[in-house]
């Protein structure tokens, strides 16, 4: 597959209370960011199973982004800490499966920080572009 | 004559909103008069002095929802002209002018802005004559700049929904109201009042509220405190608490001020540690919860706190400000400091609306110019049926203001007629379980506004080809009353049984979208909402990328819906009994309030009689007779058949949750009693601290303030010299909080002593006389009470002999060591939490204790940010259904405890009438597939809300839908995939992921 900019796909799991709302704010403020990100809304980042993260990479996406509330601000008091552990686990699993754990990014973006959301998305997209296509697109068949 | 049921609310302070919410919930209509042209043009307190700049009041204020339900009517540019009649039958004459844009119909498509031919340059920015004024999260407000508008009418023609109307007329109308609530906004000092500080004269002197306002949408960030003159970061900042230095009677300090000063200092230091920050104040009045700790943190991070009594600001070279201030010894402005920028923390001015409202409504002002309130009531004015709340009645911080809204609820409703708001019944839903899955995609064009930015036709054609999609079409919208009906009809007509709505932001419009789906006869679980506008149209520019992304989102949603199942909203039983734990003043007050409202109340008291700490008090600083009040209270409790008092009783066991608690009460010598309260009010109080200092307990002449007060009441003090030491054993590293009441108690007793001609000397660190209490400090000085101030590191020392008590003090005002001979030494020791007691209840009810050992419950006078969120959501707490009142929550005075009890009782009154409560999250809750559950209990451990338990007999997990907030932590924890979220089951999310990547 060509290393085309529009071809890069990033799946983002965003928690309803913080990062999803930050994306909303970015939207209502008409901030521009790269269109490669595709959002899955979850109520809490703790709903994200490590399987999802691996599945996204195995399905051929080039990056996985997980957004939760800032530590201490979780709507469910500690859901984001659960998420942090799960992402760490997923990264380890990804490595042992031969996937690139650099393609997994966890970030805390509070609801009020729309500009930060746009910035982080742009920055992560640029990072993924540097890494290039996810080789798993071609190599892994499940 | 029948009574009117509508309530008129004048002004938009947060208390007013809170009352509107409560009354709407209870079924009474409210009319709110907004003097401004839009929601927050006239600033209420939260927008003027929020220490945490993120407010969200507009999101949580009830207006959108309640206006939609017909429970609330908001009038803009409104003014009250006349008020006639009496409680139950007021007639109000009102002048109003509708807003240009009806926010309830506006879809924020911005077609009006595009159509406007006028471009004006303002503050270096180009803008149209139609513009969004305050760019907020939830409500973008479109206003017409009447100065520059050419009246061409292009915007009105362009508006697709008819929300924009040019030139709304000025109307005069009459409204029948059963009660009137005065809730005008906060008045902050202006240019004239702040002239001493150079505000409005020197460019680099800014008000904290200006910063708050400017950073509303972004929160307080590194950019929020740039120098206005050159836009650079200042190297040094001074923070000045102006009420301490302004002339008397201009502005008054509330509990926000010191918190705000320290919060700003801390934040600046956090973001830029090398900026030199100094804080100028007379006393640090840190009486709010956690404020002392904030202050200590500021000092630790290098903020220089300068305590001074006099201060002046002048211009220095290079746009800098020179602050001249006195030291305690010189009394003259001898010291100087030059800073790059000054932030003023301002107080509250007496309300400018007072005079007019006084004339119209007949409510008198008190001596400072605020609205006069009857003692021991939250909000009752002298005129029956007229209530005054919030910052209109005295200087108040945000938490007090917000909480006050619930206080007068029972008294308001008792003056009203029959309920006049009927909750609309939800539409009947179709059973689709036997139908073949047919998914319809409905893409919003926002009344044609999206068509310019994305090719919707091509998108529709593309999604029609997807395997899961049976139908796709473009709709006008589903957010205005008409378009909701139109879209619901389209969904019905298409015959689909799964719906994907590709629309816009759910933060504002979620309820409307769900309503659309329900009006089409479908369960909302069979629908998916996509944020087409915020996720695609407004944030991307590349057309191909936009269409790909939109198509992928729609494909994923359709794929997810293939296995969606309809499920009902769950209901839970809601009892109507209340348990009050603690028979002190606040507990009894809450019981009386709810008993009078007709609810059964059980009051539990540990000792053999009710009364608590009030037994030791005779009058308060303002001269209110506490014993008289208590006698009336106890009498009312005894007479009320709804109230049962259990003395000598302990709470031995608690199970259940909000609406359904099961509590066992153990009375000494008798059998245990079981009660099933719906709501628990914890009023367990605190106690006076007994220090191990100054020979206390060894020498009879040394006593605590409370012991002294009793001696004084019993006329045992007849002469001699009384010396009081403030902050004994408190505000130190072991006990880093201010007990709020001791300065008032000392002043009160000192004033009584001076009446009798007895000499008094008060030794203090900071005089924490907040609000109007400062008057008594001034009065005490006039009446000859001697005040000596000591440094926090040099507490006075006691040398006691049989003959005399000799106190040695280093006087901060001249730096000299002094000796005072006293006959009595009175120690202001403050309050200690009932630690053992609190810990026991903390375990029983699963409540958090704060670092000092008091209850740390969000539901009461909570941190500011939380407070503003809780205007609307009474049940959004981790500790649902348990309200902590009085000194169990934090140190507070008798009057404040009683008020807090009423406010909690008012809140309970809003919740209690429902016999059945729907789960707060309706159908979006977690469930258990019992055939897969092994009863391991992992889900129970991870649930943050204790919504899960293991059924003791069947050994499977059980969900209490009432407590579930659908985070999904249980789903992930479950090793056997038995736990699932109704709208996000594992297979659904996997389908979503596949779908997102398939296009």
Structure overview:
The complex is a heterodimer of chains A (142) and B (999). Chain A contains five helices and four strands. Chain A has 142 residues and is α/β, with parallel strands linked by helices. In chain A, strand 1 (10-15), helix 1 (19-28) and strand 2 form a beta-alpha-beta unit. The mean pLDDT of chain A is 88. In chain B, helix 17 (543-561) runs antiparallel to helix 28 and helix 18 runs parallel beside helix 25. With 999 residues, chain B is α/β, with parallel strands linked by helices. Chain B has seven domains: 1-99 and 168-186 and 351-426, FAD/NAD(P)-binding domain (3-Layer(bba) Sandwich), CATH 3.50.50.60; 100-164, Alpha-Beta Plaits (2-Layer Sandwich); 195-345, FAD/NAD(P)-binding domain, CATH 3.50.50.60; 439-561, Rossmann fold, CATH 3.40.50; 573-685 and 842-911, FAD/NAD(P)-binding domain; 688-832, FAD/NAD(P)-binding domain (3-Layer(bba) Sandwich), CATH 3.50.50; 926-998, Alpha-Beta Plaits. Chain B has a five-stranded parallel beta sheet with strand order 3-2-1-11-20. Chain B contains 28 helices and 48 strands. The interface between A and B is large, with 46 and 51 residues.
What is the compact description of this entry?
With 142 residues, chain A is of the alpha/beta class.
List the helices and strands and how they pair.
The complex is a heterodimer of chains A (142) and B (999).
Chain A lengths: L9 E6 L3 H10 L8 E6 L7 H9 L4 E6 L10 H18 L7 E5 L5 H18 L4 H4 L3
Parallel strand pairs in A: 1-2, 1-3, 3-4
Chain B lengths: L6 E4 L3 H13 L3 E4 L11 H4 L8 H4 L2 H7 L2 E4 L3 E8 L2 E9 L13 H5 L3 E4 L2 E4 L1 E3 L9 E3 L9 H5 L11 E8 L1 E4 L22 E3 H7 L21 E6 L13 H17 L4 E6 L9 H10 L3 E4 L3 E5 L5 E5 L9 E5 L1 E5 L8 H8 L24 E3 L9 H7 L4 H5 L25 E6 L11 H9 L4 E7 L5 H14 L3 E6 L2 H14 L7 E5 H6 L5 H19 L9 E3 L4 E4 L3 H12 L4 E4 L21 H14 L3 E4 L2 E9 L2 E8 L4 E4 L3 E4 L3 E3 L13 E3 H9 L7 E5 L16 H14 L3 E6 L9 H9 L3 E4 L7 E4 L4 E6 L6 E6 L1 E4 L3 E3 L1 H11 L18 H6 L12 E3 L9 H18 L4 E3 L7 E3 L9 H5 L5 E3 L6 E3 L9 H5 L5 E3 L4 H13 L1
Parallel strand pairs in B: 1-2, 1-11, 2-3, 11-20, 12-19, 13-14, 13-19, 14-15, 21-22, 21-23, 23-24, 26-27, 26-32, 27-28, 32-43, 34-41, 35-36, 35-41, 36-37
Antiparallel strand pairs in B: 4-5, 5-10, 6-7, 8-9, 16-17, 17-18, 25-44, 29-30, 30-31, 33-42, 38-39, 39-40, 45-48, 46-47
């Amino acid at each position: 597959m060509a290393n085309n900019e529009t071809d890069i796909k990033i799946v983002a799991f965003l928690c309803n209370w913080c990062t999803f709302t930050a994306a909303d704010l970015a939207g209502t403020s008409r901030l521009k960011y790269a269109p490669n990100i595709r959002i899955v809304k979850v109520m809490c980042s703790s709903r994200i199973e490590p399987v999802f993260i691996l599945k996204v990479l195995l399905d051929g996406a080039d990056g996985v982004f997980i957004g939760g509330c800032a530590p201490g601000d979780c709507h469910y008091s500690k859901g984001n800490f659960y998420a942090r552990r799960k992402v760490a686990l997923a990264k380890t699993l990804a490595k042992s499966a031969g996937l690139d754990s650099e393609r997994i990014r966890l970030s805390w973006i509070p609801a009020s920080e729309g500009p930060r959301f746009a910035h982080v998305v742009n920055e992560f997209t640029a990072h993924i572009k540097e890494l290039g296509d996810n080789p798993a697109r071609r190599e892994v068949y499940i | 004559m029948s009574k009117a049921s509508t309530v008129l609310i004048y002004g938009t302070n947060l208390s007013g909103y809170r009352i509107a919410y409560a009354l709407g919930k209870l079924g009474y209509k409210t009319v709110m008069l907004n003097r401004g042209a839009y929601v927050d043009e006239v600033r209420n307190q939260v927008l003027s002095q929020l220490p945490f700049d993120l407010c969200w009041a507009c999101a949580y204020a009830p207006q959108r929802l309640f206006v939609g339900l017909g429970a609330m009517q908001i009038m803009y540019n409104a003014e009250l002209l006349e008020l006639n009649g009496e409680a139950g039958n007021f007639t109000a004459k009102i002048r109003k002018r509708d807003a240009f844009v009806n926010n309830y119909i506006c879809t924020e498509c911005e077609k009006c802005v595009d159509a406007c031919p006028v471009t004006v340059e303002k503050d270096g920015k180009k803008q149209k004559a139609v513009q969004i004024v305050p760019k907020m999260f939830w409500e973008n407000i479109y206003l017409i700049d009447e100065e520059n508008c050419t009246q061409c009418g292009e915007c009105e023609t362009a508006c697709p929904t008819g929300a924009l109307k040019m030139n709304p007329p000025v109307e005069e109308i009459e409204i029948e109201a059963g009660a009137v609530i005065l809730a005008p906004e906060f008045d902050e000092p202006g240019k004239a009042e702040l002239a001493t500080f150079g505000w409005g004269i020197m460019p680099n002197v800014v008000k904290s509220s200006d910063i708050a306002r400017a950073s509303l949408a972004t929160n307080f960030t590194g950019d929020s405190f740039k120098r206005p003159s050159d836009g650079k970061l200042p190297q040094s900042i001074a923070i000045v608490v102006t009420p301490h230095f302004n002339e008397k009677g201009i502005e008054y300090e509330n509990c926000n001020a010191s918190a705000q000063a320290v919060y700003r200092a801390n934040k600046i230091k956090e973001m830029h540690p090398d900026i030199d920050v100094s804080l100028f104040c007379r006393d640090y009045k840190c009486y709010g919860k956690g404020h002392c700790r904030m202050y200590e943190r500021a000092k630790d991070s290098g903020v220089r706190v300068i305590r001074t009594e006099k201060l002046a600001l002048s211009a220095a070279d290079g746009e800098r400000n020179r602050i001249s201030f006195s030291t305690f010894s010189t009394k003259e402005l001898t010291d100087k400091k030059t800073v790059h920028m000054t932030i003023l923390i301002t107080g509250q001015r007496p309300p400018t609306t007072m005079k007019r409202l006084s004339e119209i409504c007949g409510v008198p002002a008190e001596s400072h110019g605020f609205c006069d309130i009857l003692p021991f009531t939250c909000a009752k004015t002298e005129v029956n049926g007229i209530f005054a709340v919030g910052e209109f009645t005295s200087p108040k911080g945000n938490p007090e203001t917000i909480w006050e809204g619930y206080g007068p609820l029972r008294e308001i409703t008792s003056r009203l007629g029959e309920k006049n708001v009927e909750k609309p019944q939800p539409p009947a839903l179709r059973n689709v379980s036997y139908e073949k899955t047919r998914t319809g995609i409905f893409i919003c064009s926002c009344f044609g506004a999206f068509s310019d930015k994305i090719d919707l036709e091509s998108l529709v054609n593309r999604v029609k080809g997807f395997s899961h999609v049976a139908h796709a079409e473009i709709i006008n919208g589903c957010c205005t009353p008409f378009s909701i009906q139109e879209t619901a009809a389209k969904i019905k007509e298409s015959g689909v049984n799964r719906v994907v709505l590709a629309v816009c932001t759910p933060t504002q419009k979620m309820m409307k979208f769900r309503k659309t789906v329900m009006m089409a006869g479908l369960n909302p679980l069979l629908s998916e909402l996509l944020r087409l506008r915020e996720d695609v149209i407004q944030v991307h520019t590349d057309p191909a990328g936009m269409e790909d992304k939109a198509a992928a989102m729609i494909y994923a949603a359709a794929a997810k819906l293939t296995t969606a199942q309809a499920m009902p909203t769950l209901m839970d039983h809601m009892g109507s009994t209340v348990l009050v734990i603690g028979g002190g003043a606040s507990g009894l007050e809450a019981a009386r309030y709810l008993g009078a409202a007709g609810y059964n109340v059980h009051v539990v008291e540990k000792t053999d009689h009710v009364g608590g700490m009030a037994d030791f008090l005779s009058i308060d600083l303002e001269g209110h007779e506490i014993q008289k009040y208590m006698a009336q209270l106890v009498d009312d409790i005894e007479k009320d058949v709804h109230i049962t008092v259990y003395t000598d009783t302990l709470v031995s066991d608690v199970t259940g949750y909000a609406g359904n608690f099961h509590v066992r009460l153990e009375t000494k010598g008798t059998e245990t009693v079981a009660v099933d309260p719906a709501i628990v009010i914890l009023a367990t109080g605190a106690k006076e601290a007994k220090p191990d200092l100054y020979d206390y307990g060894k020498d009879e002449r040394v006593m605590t303030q409370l012991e002294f007060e009793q001696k004084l009441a019993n006329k045992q003090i007849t002469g001699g010299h009384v010396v009081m030491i403030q902050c004994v054993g408190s505000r130190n590293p072991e006990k880093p909080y201010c007990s709020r009441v001791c300065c008032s108690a000392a002043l009160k007793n000192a004033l009584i002593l001076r009446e009798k001609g007895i000499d008094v000397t008060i030794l203090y660190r900071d005089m924490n006389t907040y609000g109007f209490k400062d008057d008594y400090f001034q009065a005490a000085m006039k009446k000859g009470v001697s005040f000596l101030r000591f440094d926090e590191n040099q507490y006075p020392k006691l040398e006691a002999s049989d003959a005399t008590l000799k106190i040695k003090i280093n006087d901060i005002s001249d730096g000299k060591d002094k000796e005072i001979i006293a006959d009595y030494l009175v120690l202001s020791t403050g309050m200690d939490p009932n630690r053992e007691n609190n810990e026991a209840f903390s375990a029983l009810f699963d409540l958090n204790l704060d670092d000092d050992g008091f209850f740390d419950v969000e539901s009461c006078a909570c941190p500011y940010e939380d407070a503003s969120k809780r205007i609307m959501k009474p049940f959004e707490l981790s500790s649902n259904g348990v309200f902590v009142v009085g000194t169990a929550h934090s140190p507070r005075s008798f009057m404040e405890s009683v008020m807090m009890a009423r406010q909690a009782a008012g809140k309970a009154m809003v919740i209690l009438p429902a016999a059945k409560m729907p789960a707060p999250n309706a159908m979006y809750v977690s469930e258990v597939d019992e055939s897969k559950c092994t009863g391991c209990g992992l889900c129970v451990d991870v649930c943050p809300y204790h919504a899960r338990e293991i059924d003791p007999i069947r050994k499977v997990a059980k969900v209490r839908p009432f407590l579930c907030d659908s985070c999904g932590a249980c789903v992930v924890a479950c090793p056997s995939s038995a736990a699932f979220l109704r709208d996000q089951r594992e297979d659904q999310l996997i389908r979503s992921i596949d779908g997102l990547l398939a296009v």
